[in-house]
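Example 3.2
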Amino acid sequence: MSFEAVIFDCDGVLVDSEPLTLGVLRDMLAELGWELSADECEALFIGKSTANELQIIQNRIGKKLEQDWIDEFQLRRNQALKQKLVAVPGIRQCLSDILKAGSGKIACASAAELQKINLQLNKVGLIDLFDGHLFSGVDVPRNKPYPDVYLKAAEALATDPQHCAIVEDSITGIRAGFAAGATVFAYDPKHNPEPLLNAGAAVVFNSMCDLPNLLRHYDQQ
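Structure, written as tokens:
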């Protein structure tokens, strides 16, 4: 493999969580009087941490959200994830192929809180593949789009970020990976590559089945 380590985002890359999470968020925003279409909600919130989501909402509605609203959102979101979450198509075989082909250095680095990462990867049966290498942007000084969580993951894997591939699906995450100095592979199941390339992705791909081969043959020079 051309890379010493591969670091994956979680939401939208390992697990198909974003429709569930954004659906709960849309419902609760509607209850606050802020009606959004699915596309509008995705454009505003995809790839964001809970803290950043809250700031956007508070700025829009003009008041501070109390802790009980935050707790209710997380409860409803987690219930939806526990009931309906599935893995991204092809990701299990993708991870298996990468582990067989390379040094076995993979990690997950997400903007989400660690509890949510664990919940999701346990639910879809992927957690054991990462051997504890799970990192949350909440636990570093600056969350995505800053590179801190990716730099922390690379350090834990004892790998220079320049020798890492990062797999992302959001503009926010791609910017974080690019800022870390890694090579970013953007997962694009909706076939809209231009904004991903503009954000700093080196490669855009549409199926997880293609990723191991793309990593194997990517020329870093």
